[in-house]
Amino acid sequence: CGARTGWTVYLPPLVQKRPARECEIKFIAPQVEDPLVYLSKMDKKSKKKWKRRAYACVYSAGKTCHSQVEADFEDRRWKKITKPRKHKEGGFRTWDATFVLTDWEMLEKLRVREPETFYQLYYEREGTTYLNALVGAEDLGGSLNKQFASRRRLADRGGCKFNLLKIQSPHYDTSVDSDCVELETSLAKSSDSKKNFVVQKIVKGQDSPEVLTSSSISSGKNPCKDGSTSAWDQTPTIVWEGMSKPLLLPQKRSFDVRSYMLIGSTMPFMVFFRRGYIRTSSAEFRSSNKNNYEPHRFDKSTEFMSLAEFQTYLAHNKIAGGHYVDTLLVSAMKQIALFTFHAARQKIERRRGSFQLFSIDFVLDELFHIYLEKVTAEYDFGSRKVHEDAPDLVSEMHDLVMELHEIPVAFEGMIKGDKYGDWELLFSELIESCHKIPYNPCHSFFEFNSRDLRKANKKVGKVHNTANRERHEHDRVKKKAEEQKRDKCKDKKISYPSSKCDKMAQAEADAKFVRLFDEHEKDYNPNYFELPRLGEVFPWEKV
Fold first, then answer.
1. DSSP characters over 325-372
2. Where is 430: in which H helix or E strand?
3. 408 CB-near residues (< 8 Å, 6+ apart)
4. CB count, 10 Å around CB of 232?
C-alpha cells in the first residue's frame, strides 16, 4: 500500500484546528440584562419574593394596545400599568414597565412636549425596558410617500432605477423632472383612456390616495403641473399605475397576501419573516370600480384564506404546480421584504431592547408577477375579525424578542432560513459581518418579474396532477381498508359484504380508539388543579 500511494506512515489532516471566524461581530451580548420587574411582598414562611413582569400601553387618546397582545400578556400573568407615576426627583411622568407598547406618533409627542419623560424612557431605561417602536423606521412602515422615497434612494445607490427592479408597479415622483417625463410617456403610450392611476398625497400627516383615469390626468389633473409637493410637510406627491388585471380567485374575487416582518434586534440587526395568509375582497373585481385600486382596500377584509388553501386551489385547478407557494411566492416575498428593510436600515436608531413588527402586503397579477403593495407598522391581524394565526404569532414574537435580548446564545449560530417557531431568519448582521458583501438590489432583482409564468405554471400543474394523485391515493387507502375488513370477516366466517361484517369492523375500530385514548390519557386528571402556596408561583412563571 505504501509503495502505491507514496506514504509509508499515516499523515494527520493538514488542518488540525478550525480557523477563527473572520467576523467583525462574533458574539451577541445580552441587551437586556436587568429587565424591570416587580417583586411580591416577603412571604413569612418561605421568606422569598417572586418576580413579575409588567406592561404599559402608551398611546395617544383614542388608541390602545391590540387585544391580542394584551391577551398574551394576561396569559403570562403580567401586571398592567394603567397610570404613570411621578418621578421622585424630577416630578415628570414615568412608566415603570418591562414592556412599553407605543408608536412613533406618541414617542414624538413625548419628545416635544415631555422631553424628560422621553429621555428617561428611551435612554435611561435602555437595556431595562422593551420598546415596540423603532425611532427612524418611518421610511419602512410610515407614509407611502416616505416608503417610496427610501426605496428609490436604495436603488440609486445600487446604480439602477427603482422602476426597473419591478418590485412595485411603475411609480413616479412628481418633484423629479425625469419621472414627470416618464409619466407623460406612459400616458401617451396608453391606448386605454380609462387606465387608472393612484395619486398619493399627504394630508395632515395621513395618506390620502386618489384614483384618477389616464384621460383625467391628461386633461388637467396632472400633479406634475399643479404642484409637486403636499402642503402638509412638503412631501412629494407620488403617482403609480393601478393593477388592472390581477390574479383572481373564484367568483372573480381579488386578493392580497399579508405577511409579517419582525426587526427583533438592532444591536446587531436581526430580521425575521413570517408567512401569513390571503385576504380576499367581498365583491367581484371590476376594472371600472376605482375602489379596487386603493392601497388600503383589503385592510377591512373579514374573509381570509390560508396559504395552504390557496396552494390547494391552484394545484387542483391546474393553475400552478403543487409547490408554487413554497418555491415561488414565498421566496419572492422574502426577497422583497429584505429589500424594504435595507431601504430604511440607515435611518433606524439602534437601541438595546427595541423591536418592531411590520405587516407587508403583496399582490399578484394575471402573469403571476408578485408586487409589493405596502408596509404597515401597526399591529394588524384583521380589523373586524382576527385571523386564527394571530395568537401564535404574538406569543412566539414575544418569546423570540425576550430570548434574543436576554439569552441570545441560540441566535449566534443561526443562518438565513433557520426558524424560531414559524419566524424565519431573513437577515443577520453577524453573517453580514463575516462575508462583508454589501446588499445591492440591482443584483438581487435582475430580471425580476420579467417572464410570463402562466404557461409554465399551468404545465407544472398538469405534470403534478395533484387532484388526481390525491384522489387515487384516497381510493388506494380505501381499497386496502376494504380488503383488510374482508379478510377479517372471512376469518370469523362472516359473510362479506354484509351489515354484520360492517358492524364488526366498526366495533373493532371503536375498541382500538378507546384503547389508544386510555393509554394516552391514563396519567391525566382534568379535575386536578392545585394553586401555588402563598408567596410562590406556577413553575412556568419563574423568572
1. IIIIIHHHHHHHHHHHHHHHGGGPPP-TTB-EEEEEEEEEBTT--EEE
2. helix 429-435
3. 28, 29, 30, 31, 265
4. 14
Instruction: Return the amino acid letter for 374.
Output: K
Cell of 201: 398625497
Which residue intervals of 52-137 are DSSP H helices?
67-75, 104-113, 115-119
| Contact between residue 202 and residue 145 where contact means Cβ atoms under 8 Å apart | yes
* In the block, residue with C-alpha cell 421610511: 139
Tens of pLDDT along 137-165? 999 988 888 999 999 999 999 999 999 99
pTM assigned to the model = 0.83
Radius of gyration of the chain (CA): 29
Place of cell 354484509: 498
Q: What is the grid cell recorded at 98?
A: 418591562
pLDDT digits (tens, 9 = 90+) for 343-353: 999 999 999 99
Residues 6+ apart with CB under 8 A from 23: 430, 433, 434
Beta-strand ranges (E) seen in 140-252 are 171-173, 196-203, 206-213, 238-241
The amino acid sitting at 42 is M
Alpha-carbon distances, residue 288 vs 243, 285, 296, 364 (angstroms): 12, 9, 18, 19
What burial class does residue 116 get, using C-beta atoms within 10 Å of its C-beta: 0-12 exposed, 13-18 middle, 19+ buried? middle
